[in-house]
């Protein structure tokens, strides 16, 4: 069985390879464009949620309360794109970066063009010919591996159930 740890390791290897060959790669600290333009509420498997929940539980209560407000607003927001409810708006940082879901780990390094899942800033560089040597990861393969880990649910549902049970 494919474990989440193994999947993270495989994604990290591709990310490290791309960054190693392109030290000026756009995805990195300070870039939060994808976090501010989500196509939908992130979907997580239970095992991803369990890891993310560990990171959330370690946050200060006031930060967790802010996230709870953002989750509630997101759950009822009819329009898209959406902003990740975990994003620190002022710094653009993720407070649970080490526990982030697979979708966050792979974005910008794996592509799923038919679903519009790619970074438009990186796509511009590709169009200009700057990244012709990059071997992109196939996000369809990531989705297949995630499916083997169990059913996915929206982040807002996982969070609401956790809040209700705490």
From TrEMBL:
**Source domain of life:** Bacteria
Q: Which InterPro entries match?
A: Puta_zinc/iron-chelating_dom
Q: What is the recorded name of this protein?
A: YkgJ family cysteine cluster protein
Q: Which organism is it from?
A: Candidatus Proximibacter danicus
The beginning of the lineage is: Bacteria, Pseudomonadati, Pseudomonadota, Betaproteobacteria, Candidatus Proximibacter
